[in-house]
Design a protein that fits this description.
It holds the Pfam family Hydrolase. This protein has eleven helices and six strands. By secondary structure, it is of the alpha/beta class.
């Protein structure tokens, strides 16, 4: 079982959205909430930085990245909580092997998972897009996680909350469970070999039904 982190385990996406909207307004790229979700949610820092540089230039892209990390760290420390129902779901999952594969950096995950107390559940089984050449929607990160866990891709399931994440899971030959209880609309997650759900407490039963 492969879990995304932001928006699946920790409820960080609304905080990141707020920071992106602020920075866009300040640095000359006014964005709507839907545009932030469509362009940035689920993408690696490198992919987001490329988009910003194409729009605003390298200098402002660097400034955006520095400001984003600093501001997000502050709001995470002040406001972050786990996704509603995720601890209950994890407690009920009869799965011996589970890991995290996130577009976020290891530094970011240490902060978010540590803040919510979830890190201990996945210690030693946390993988970042910084470890592979291509981030989501390419399959590299999920295939890397499967190799490290010693499980064939066809026997893996992925829990994701972004359109890029579910696309990466499909490209890796894995079944996807698209969590639509966050920012991404359900129809952006729907597709082949994908089960869309809205409450994390539903996940154990859904996994059992598709075992």
């Amino acid at each position: 079982m492969i879990f995304d982190c932001d928006g699946v385990l920790v409820d960080s996406e609304p905080l990141a959205l707020k920071v992106c909207l602020e920075l866009g307004a300040e640095l000359g790229w006014p964005l709507t909430e839907d545009e932030v979700v469509d362009r940035f949610l689920g993408r690696s820092e490198r992919a987001v930085a490329r988009q910003i540089a194409e729009r605003l230039g390298e200098e402002l892209a660097v400034r955006w990245g520095e400001e984003y990390r600093a501001r997000l760290a502050r709001v995470i420390d002040a406001e972050l909580a786990e996704v509603a129902g995720v601890s209950e779901a994890l407690d009920a999952l009869p799965i011996p092997l589970s890991c995290i594969a996130s577009s976020g950096s290891h530094d970011k995950m240490r902060r978010t998972l540590g803040r919510t107390g979830l890190r201990a559940r996945f210690e030693g089984r946390i993988f970042s897009a910084s470890e592979v050449e291509r981030g989501k929607p390419e399959p590299d990160l999920f295939l890397h996680a499967a190799r490290r866990m010693g499980v064939p891709p066809a026997r893996c399931a992925v829990v994701e909350d972004s359109q890029y994440g579910v696309r990466a899971a499909r490209a890796a030959g894995m079944r996807a469970f698209g969590y639509a209880g966050g920012l991404t609309p359900a129809d952006w997650l729907a597709g082949p070999r994908t089960t869309v759900f809205h409450d994390m407490r539903e996940l154990p039963a859904l996994l059992g039904a598709h075992a």
